[in-house]
Amino acid sequence: MARKHKMEEMTPAEFTVAVAEKPVFILATGILEWHADHLPLGTDALKMRGIAERLAQEADAILLPQNWFGVVGYDEMLGTITFSKDLVKHILGEYFENLEKLGAKLIVLLTGHYGPYQVETIKEAAAEYMAHSKVRIIAQPEYEGVDFSGFPCEADHADKYETSLMMALYPDLVQMDRWKNELEIPYEYEPRENAWGYRSPRGKWEFSEDFREQASPELGERLAKAIVEHLKARIDEELAQV
Ligand SMILES: [Zn+2]
Questions:
Q1: Is pTM, for the whole model, over 0.85?
Q2: pLDDT confidence tier of residue 32, bands split at 50, 70 and 90
Q3: Cα–ligand 1 centroid distance for 17 (angstroms)
Q4: How high is the pLDDT of residue 160?
Q5: How much is the pLDDT for 31?
Q6: Rg (Cα) of the chain, in Å, rounded?
Q7: Which of 54, 70, 93, 142 is the most interior residue, by most CB within 10 Å?
Q8: How many angstroms is it from 88 CA to the middle of ligand 1?
């Protein structure tokens, strides 16, 4: 039987073997956040999960269940749920602690939700943990370090990149018939407090272009492959130093 990679599906015996052979854990993170009219609210987390599943197979790593706790965020927009920086750092710190207890030598924390605040939060959590532990942690958005020069897009919000990745990973969840260029941003809620005083952008939502012809599952597949290849190489690099 092929080796399992999802921790929640492993028996104790399978888990023990997996940790002994390759003590690498992947934690994919994202949030619920408005992603225009054609993509699901869970796009960031789902996209990250889909990529992380492939990475776990390629790198023979152990994939944890999805983490949905992240920081701002288009908080005022329809369907968005975010949490405070302190809480998210705390949760991540306790994940690291638990994974070290389970035998992790390398933790790969990947966020499919971006923005400087989310990236700062996960990198700080990782750096603070590594300062007093021998565990190595890669903490980054999935696109970091990937060469996109051969692609017609790079990481974005609900634009060509995310739409193509979702088409490749979850074709049933993309509704291109709902796509429109002139999009009113659905400001539904009062802003919540956050550590940076960040407020959602105002005005109309603007896409880079009408990408209905350019976004495709084929492009999504190529993007996913480039991301997985890069991250697998990063894992090997880090493991060489353990
Ligand atoms: Zn997104």
A1: yes
A2: very high
A3: 35
A4: 97
A5: 98
A6: 18
A7: 70
A8: 18
Q: How close is the Cα of 147 to the center of ligand 1, in Å? A: 19
Under the banding of pLDDT at 50, 70 and 90, the label for residue 238 is: very high
In this prediction, residue 1 carries a pLDDT of 57
Say which CATH superfamily domain 7-239 falls into: Creatininase (3.40.50.10310)
Ligand 1 centroid, distance to 203 Cα (angstroms): 19
For residue 160, the CA-to-ligand 1 centroid distance in Å is 11
DSSP character string of 135-171: -EEEEEETTTT---TTSS--S-SSSHHHHHHHHHH-G
Q: Report domain extents, the chain.
A: 7-239
Q: What is the pLDDT of residue 117?
A: 97
d(CA 157, CA 155): 7
Expressed in angstroms and rounded, the spacing between residue 102 Cα and the centre of ligand 1 is 31
Residue 140, both tokens: 């980054």
Amino acid identity of residue 153, one-letter, is C
Q: How far is the CA of 157 from the centre of ligand 1 (A)?
A: 5
Q: In this structure, are residues 93 and 130 in contact, taking their beta carbons and an 8 Å threshold?
A: no
Given a cut of 90, whether residue 200 has pLDDT beyond it is no
Contact between 23 and 196 under an 8 Å Cβ cutoff? The reply is no
Q: Of all residues in the chain, what percent carry a pLDDT higher than 70? A: 100
